[in-house]
Predict the structure.
Amino acid sequence: MSKLLERNIIDLLRERNEKGMELLFDHYGDTLFGVAYKVTKDEDLAKDVVQLSLMKIWDKIDTYNQEKSKLFTWIFRITRNTAIDKLRSANLKSDQEIQIEVSDVYNLGTESVNPDHLDLRKHLASLDEKYQVVMEALFFQGMTQQEASEALDMPLGTIKSRLKIGLRELRKIYDPALVILICSMLMNYLP
């Protein structure tokens, strides 16, 4: 795609002109579907992901910084992360249904390790912002360490150090065994 056409799409989207969305879909729609399908392995789910991604692109176009990444890279990440979130949501729902049906003797329920019930976001907010940003990207946005390094424009070593320090700080709030459980649970969902 030419830089002129890419610039035109960005300008139209920022002006909230629907022609920008049409051009974006015409030039990237098949690729975005391919990204979504590769993650979800389900055609209907992939279509939902593309639709959700396009809405996010429309809503977040003002946050796009062409000095940090190309338009394709930015929309690719949005679509990939949306697909991961959608897949996690579908898997979580499936896991909850299975757990309820299978376990009738000792059912802890999903709330026993639900990050929301542990006030994980609240406690993350108590950390220094530089650790919050890294942990948010890795655990809640589903980025790999390399993707977080690129998205946050930080060296990979800094990402790793801030993750380690952030986890150490969480251990002061939670029982260390619980932090390990939370991390392993969250890491199971990372690509």
